Amino acid sequence: MTSRTAVDVRPITESEFADWQRALNVGFLREPGLDQDILDARRAQFTPGRSLGAFDAGRCVATFRSFAQELTVVGGATVPADAVTNVTVTATHRRRGLLTRMMAQDLTAAKERGDVVATLIAAEYPIYGRYGFGPATSATEWTVDVPRAGLDPRWAGPEDGGRIDLVDAEDVRKLGPELHERLRRGQPGAVSRDELWWRITTGAVRFHPTFHEPYYVVYRAADGRVEGMAAYTADDNWGDAKQPLNTARVKWLTGVTPAAERALWHFLCSIDWVVKVRSGWRAPDDLLPHFLPDPRAAAVTTHADWMWVRILDVVRALEARTYGAAGELVLEVTDRAGLAGGRFRLGASADGAGVCAPAAGSADLTLDVAELAALWLGDESAVRLAALGRVREERAGAARQADALLRTSRRPWCPDVF
Ligand SMILES: CC(=O)SCCNC(=O)CCNC(=O)[C@H](O)C(C)(C)COP(=O)(O)OP(=O)(O)OC[C@H]1O[C@@H](n2cnc3c(N)ncnc32)[C@H](O)[C@@H]1OP(=O)(O)O
Question: Which amino acids does the record list as binding acetyl-CoA (predicted)?
Answer without folding.
Answer: 87-89, 95-100
